[in-house]
Amino acid sequence: RGHELGTGFLSPYLWGGRGIEPYASLGIDPKQHAAVRPALEKMWGTGRKNSAEHRQTEEMVRASVRAFLADRKKNGLSVDMPGDVMAWAHQLLYKKAFKRDLTLMEGKV
Asked: What SS3 class is residue 8?
């Protein structure tokens, strides 16, 4: 099947100027994958089931999706597919990895 990139989660905004080249890992072999997987799991993983990290990550995702949908409803906006969902996913991944928030517009860049 090849690599699963979703619908473009490699936004240059998220990685530009940070010394990270997200496309570099697309052609790695299994040995290289095994070497980098722990770092990726630490960055974006949910932690072990029933751990504090897992519960915190689940709550972060739930709170984020609730806030996203409430904002769209409050402002009388529909959910633009896939643009808004991709931007929300960028927000969520950025928050998980870097513990910082992005606006929806920043997530769309």
From this structure: coil
Contact predicate 58/64, CB 8 Å: no
Q: Which tokens in the block code for residue 60?
A: 């972060």
User: In the chain, what percentage of residues exceed pLDDT 70?
Assistant: 76
Supply the Cα-derived Rg of the chain in whole angstroms. Answer: 15
Is pTM beyond 0.70? Reply is no
* pLDDT tier, 58 (very low <50, low <70, confident <90, very high otherwise): very high
CA distances from 82 to 3, 5, 38 (A): 19, 14, 29
Q: At what angle do helices 52-74 and 83-98 cross, to 10 degrees?
A: 140
